[in-house]
Amino acid sequence: MRARAGFLALALAGGFAAPIAVVAPNGLAPLLIVCGAFALFARAWPGGRWVAGVAAFLAYALLSLVWAIDRGEALDGWLRIAGSAVLGLALVGAARDLDDAARARLETWLIGGTLAALVLLGAQLASERIWTRETSFAAAWHGPETNFWALFNRSVAVLAALLPLAALAAWRRRGAGAAAVLFAAGLYLIFNFNSRGAELAILAGLAGGGFAALWARGRTVLAAGFAALVLAAPLIAALPVFDEWAQDRALGSSVFHRAAIWSFAADRIAEHPLLGWGLHAARAIPGAKHQFVPGAELMPLHPHNFALQLWLELGLIGALAGAAASAGLARAIAGDAITRAALAACLCAAFAVASVGYGLWQGWWMGALWLFAALAAALAPKPGGC
Question: Taking residues 163-177, what's their average pLDDT?
Answer without folding.
Answer: 97
